[in-house]
Amino acid sequence: MQAIRRRDTGPELAIRRLLHAAGYRYRCDYRVDVAGARIRPDIVFTRARVAIFVDGCFWHSCPEHGRTPRVNTDYWEPKLERNRTRDEANTRALEEAGWCVLRIWEHTIAHEALCLVRRAIPTPRPAIHASRDAVSEAAGKLC
Description:
alpha+beta, 41% helix, four-stranded mixed β-sheet
């Protein structure tokens, strides 16, 4: 289990690339202290108070793709249940502190995730590079 990454997973990187290209600036794996809890969302927009979690289907028990392993169920069932319970508690704590929480499954297409972020944060800060306009237009057509 040492090889399991906490950050910079494939789905997370794909979403971050699109967000950055669209002009959004964010923090990665940023610790948010709320109500005595220390929570580390995958992507954080501090000014807009938006926290994004990119959840893996296996580790967070996706209703569509999540499954409990048949081997060593005495270990895996409680482990996956603790993950679900922690996810619910973190979401509740952030929302009670006034944060908008987006939970995106790893199987979600990156452009759909960008559309979710656009609904939560309508306009990104202006970017310096000119390629942002082309990417924003293309992403805007998908939303």
